[in-house]
Every structure is written in structure tokens, then in C-alpha cells.
Amino acid sequence: MTFGIFCKYLEKLESTASRNEMTIILSEIFSETSSEEAKLTAYLCQGKLGPAYKSPDFGVADKSMLKALGLKAQAIFHETGDLGKTIEKLKNQEEKIHVKNLKISEIYDRLWEVAMISGTGSQDKKQQLIINLLADVDPVSAKYIVKIILGKLRTGFSDMTILDGLSWMLVGSKSERKQIERIYNVRADLGEVALVVKDHKLKIKNLNIDPQIGTPILMARAERAVDATDIWERLNKCAVEYKLDGLRIQAHIQCPVPSAQCPVKLFSRGLEDVTHMYPDICEGLAKQIKHDCIVEGEMIALDKQGNFLPFQETVQRKRKYDILEMLESVPLKVFLFDILAIDGKSLLDLPNEKRREILESITPLNPPLTPHLAVRIERGDVRGGNPKGEGDTVQLMERKIVNSEIEIEKFFQKALKDGTEGIIAKKLNGEYAAGSRDFNWIKYKKSYQKSALSDTLDVMIMGYDVGQGKRTKFGIGDFLVGVYQPETDKYLTVAKIGTGLTDEEWRKVKSSVSSNQLPVKPENYEVSKQMNCDHWVGPKIVVEILADEITKSPMHTSGYALRFPRLVSFREKKPEDSTTFAELKKMFEL
User: Fold this and answer.
1) Which entry of 243, 427, 445, 496 is annotated as an active-site residue?
2) What is the pLDDT of residue 365?
3) What gap in Å lies between CA 199 and CA 34, rounded to an integer?
4) What is the Cα 43 distance to its own chain's centre?
5) HEC per residue, 64-112
6) What is the pLDDT, as a whole number, of residue 470?
7) Per DSSP, which regions of 363-450 are E strands?
């Protein structure tokens, strides 16, 4: 497929809000591409050169692009306000357009070349490469090349829509989506999934895909429980572990160390490669674990006495700059609780109890989570390790096998006393449910016991209104948030948030929504007339919200509203991993 034909499809995608129409358009794209082209288009459809965790930043700002487009472009830009439309209009004004029918792979390679240039004089080199590239393509292709380079391609669909498109390509319906999603859950790389589906076609029903070091696995999620009785009725004998209020991490470890490479890669829950942010964790894992493996754990900051610090302290380490300075002031430890693969073998289908045994066998003896627990830990009762090696970065998560709801409650109370959020109960024979939320894991937190709503919700920003009065300077006055209903693939509204933010938070929200703004409301956003917004935002930004309570509401499409909602933080989550409608309903019932 030529890049010009691909861009015609991008125009169709941008002009529709219908999820079904998008699915059909994507299926047409994949039907016309080779396997390798399908891989590249899966990335380019989302304005990237790879999956989110390894797609390079082009490092080209609007001003630099405008400079590359030349003086004529500046006047047009004042009219359009969009650099993509500017180059399209500029090229349409040319008397003769010399167009090369370049293939998708050729454009991809040239875009990659732009992204890879760095160092002294890099901006001038990038600009020249961009000028040369734009000269070789038609006006529509030029528009989308500029949008991709600036990170402003707005097609308005999620990863799941691409999976639907692949299913539609195979059988003319979404019936194979579940099987394709199973592949994606284990290999969270849309390009690789597209390539596999194209290569194997209908054979994917019997295709087993194993984890691969360097490609993240979508993380399993837990359901909620109101008390120990609720857990016991569902699981009976089970394992209970501390639930820490830190940063969940998936670590991919290579042993022996590959030459000239970091032996460890760290992925966040939102599939972001955060390896460079936590060199201390990488060093600890490489030093203490001597196997090729994929493990999961929670990173958290501790004080000098070994007590857990609040999340606000831990999250300071999530930064792109001044990493070494923060490493000294906020050292982290990672508490491992699961292992997903080892020495080339997948462990996803093994029972939780067996996975824990393997994890313990490869993890050095660890100190207990807090020094004052040392005298109370008995091997086989509470698994924590021994008091030696207190400086170790890697430790095992506190865990106990319980035989009654009384034991669950006792462990829960101990967890609270030791400064945790609560506990997670795990089914002993439960497999690792990649990308799913089920009752193999059940979380029980202190906040669930209170009459007021003190647990937070992870909600997705759906749209926003322009600011008035004091907020005119921010360009935003409130923003609409919603919860996810996976059964229908709909987002249902639950609150409009217009208070409780600092000036800096308003600026951050505005920056995020502006870079994900859409011209029309996506079809899978269910919004009442009372909650309509001035601008719509693509399914991208997840925020953590705290509210006083949940009440019933006819104005919100979820049927519920948050009373006095306020922003807590931005979350590293995919929109599909936000709080579900079922969870919201259960929280209301609690």
C-alpha cells in the first residue's frame, strides 16, 4: 500500500465519530496491507512509530515545524491554526507538485530517521529531512506527516478499536476480538498483534502466544470486597498479601547481562517504559535476580525506620529530569508479588501458589517489610524472609495462607497497623489473568469500611468547557469525567469537575486535554444534554478522583454522581483500566 492511499483512510477515520465505521475502515486498511505493512499501519494510525513504550519522540516543536515550512506557511497558519492543514493548503497552491508514490514502509523509515537525529545541529538536520520528505508527497500525505511528527494526529479511537478492526478483517464481524485481545494481553504491542493476525489468519483460534522479555504483559487487576466474609465466601482458603500504596511495576530481566544494554526494563501499569526513572531499582533487580524472567511488584518509598511513606512521597520519583538527585532523597524498594515467565517459559497458566514458590526460589532471602515485624515473622506463617540484608532493594511482598475469615481479618488489621492500604486476597489455584479484572484477586482496603466515600475512583476525561471569569486565563473552566462499561464499550458520565484544583493543576489539565482534543464527540461516549461540553477529548487521560459520596443522578448517564469531586492525581492507566460502571455501582452499594 502506498502512503497516499493510507492517508485517504486517515481522512475517513478523522471525519467519523462512529465506532463501527472506524472498525470497518480499519479492517479495509488491514485487508489491503501485507503483514509487515499491517504492523506499521497499526502504529501510524495512532500517530506513533511503535508501541507507546518504545515509540521515539520526534523532538520537533510547532515553531521548528513552522520554520521548516517557510515564510508562506506563516500567513496560512494564522488562518488555519493547524500546521497540518497549513502544509496541505500550501502544497495545493503549488503549480506543479512532484509526487513520488512512496510506500508506507518508505515513509516510516524516513520518519524514523527524523526521530533518531540528536545532538548539535539536530534541529537544522531534522528540518531539512522534513522539507525533503514533504516535497516528495501529495498535499494530504503532507498534512498527516506533519500531524504525526507533531504528535497531533487525532483519530479518536483506542487500542481496542484496532483489535476490532483486525477481527472484522478476518470474519466481517467483531466475533474474533476476544481471541485477538488474548494475544494482545500477553504481547501488548499492536503492531506485533497485527502482524501475527495477518500471518496466521483464522489459525489464531489455536495460537498460543508466550510472553516475550521486552514486551509488557497487560497487568491483572483485582475486584473489591467489603469485608473478610466477602473474601472467604468467594475464595475459602487463599493467600493474603499486603496492598501497598506505591507504584506498580513490571520488570523484565535478562541474565546474563546483554552487552551494551540495560539488563532490566521497567514498565508501568499504563505500559510506559520507565526504566530510566528508577536506576536504583534496575540495579537491585539485576544484582539480586539471576534468571531471565518477568516479575511484578510494587515500588514504594520507606523512611529510615523502614516505615512506608505516603504515595505523595513515592510519586516524586516519577520524573524525567533530576533523577539522580531524587534518588538520594527518596530511595525506593520494590516488593515482588508475582512472576509471569522464567527462562523462556510462560508461567501465566500456573496456579498462583506455584508461581509464588518459583518467585521465592529465585529471590534472595529478604528482610521483613518493617523492622518491628522481625520478632513476629515465622517462616511458613508470614513469608517475609529474615532480618539480614536490610539494604537490599528487592524484597518479597508480605504473604500468608489463611484458613478462615477470622485469619483474613487478623492479617488485614496487621496490614493496616504496618501502614499499608489493606490487603489483596489471591485464589491459590488462580491463573494470572493478563489484562482482566476478576475474582482471582480481591482487594480489601480500609477505605471500604467507612460510611463516607474515602476510596478514590480512576475516571477518564471525556470533555471540557472553556473557562469564565478567573479561569479564562487557563482556557478551561471544568472537565467531564466518566467510568467505563466494558460490556458495551461505553463511557458513562459521573461528574463535571470545576473546583478543588490549584492553578498549576488547571494548567496541567488544560495542556493534557488540548493535546487530545477531538472535533466531535466519540460514538461510545454516552452523555446527556445537560452534560454536553464545549470540547471533546479522546479516550486517553485517566485521573484519580476523590469525592465525599456517590449519589443517584438522572443527569449523568451512569445514573450516579460524585458529590464534591476533586482531583488527586493523573494515573498511568489505559482508559479501559479505569473504574468500571459495575465497580461504581458496588461502591455506591457499600
Assistant:
1) 243
2) 61
3) 9
4) 16
5) HHHHHHCHHHHHHHHHHCCHHHHHHHHHHCCCCCCCCCCEHHHHHHHHH
6) 67
7) 394-396, 399-402, 422-427, 437-445
Task: Tell me, rounded to whole angstroms, the distance of Cα 138 from its chain centroid.
Answer: 35
Report residue 356 as a C-alpha cell.
509464588
CA distance 186 to 106: 30
Q: Domain 457-589 falls in which CATH fold? A: OB fold (Dihydrolipoamide Acetyltransferase, E2P) (2.40.50)
Residue 256 φ then ψ, to 5°:
-70, 170
The domains of the chain are located at 3-150, 221-449, 457-589
- Name the grid cell of 123: 534541529
For the chain, count helices (H), then strands (E): 20, 21
> In sequence order, what E strands does 435-553 have?
437-445, 457-465, 478-485, 490-497, 517-518, 525-526, 535-537, 542-546, 549-552
Which residues is 495 bridged to in the sheet?
A: 481
Residue 399 amino acid letter: R
What's the confidence (pLDDT) of residue 79?
A: 84
72 is catalytic: no
| Phi and psi angles of residue 360, each rounded to the nearest 5 degrees, phi first | -65, -35
Cα 105 to Cα 508: distance, rounded to the nearest angstrom: 36
Nearest to residue 573, comparing CAs of 458, 489, 424?
458
Other CB atoms closer than 10 Å to residue 487's CB: what's the count? 9
Q: What is the pLDDT of residue 382?
A: 37
Q: Take residue 391 and report the three cell numbers written for it.
A: 539494604
| Among 224, 239, 222, 560, residue whose Cα is nearest residue 382 | 239
Q: What is the distance between the alpha carbons of residues 174 and 167, in angstroms, rounded to a whole number?
A: 5
Q: What is the DSSP letter of 44?
A: H
- The C-alpha cell at 344 is 523462556
pLDDT the model gives residue 371 = 38
**DSSP-derived pairing of the beta strands 437-445 and 221-224:** parallel
The fold of the 3-150 domain, in CATH, is DNA ligase i, domain 1 (1.10.3260)
Q: 195-218, pLDDT tens digit by residue?
A: 999 998 767 777 888 999 999 999
* Cell representation of residue 98: 512532484
* CB contact at 8 A, 491 and 482: yes
The answer to whether the beta carbons of residues 196 and 188 sit under 8 Å apart is no
pLDDT given at position 157: 81
For the domain spanning 221-449, the CATH number is: 3.30.470.30
User: At residue 57, what is the residue type?
Assistant: D
264 is written with which cell numbers?
Answer: 532490566
Per-residue burial over 59-73, b = 16 or more CB atoms within 10 Å of its CB, e = otherwise: ebeeebbebbbeeeb
Cα–Cα distance list, 217 to 41, 220, 351 (Å): 22, 9, 17
Distances (CA, A) of 193 to 34, 38, 80, 164: 13, 9, 37, 12
| Among 523, 467, 422, 517, CA closest to 24 | 523
d(CA 531, CA 518): 17
Amino acid identity, position 267:
F
Residues of the chain scoring pLDDT < 70 = 95-97, 202, 257-261, 365-391, 447-454, 469-471
Q: How far apart are CA 590 and CA 543, in angstroms?
A: 22
* Residue of 352, 318, 349, 35 whose CA lies nearest to 217: 349
What pLDDT sits at residue 391?
A: 57
Are the CB atoms for 465 and 478 separated by under 8 Å?
Answer: yes
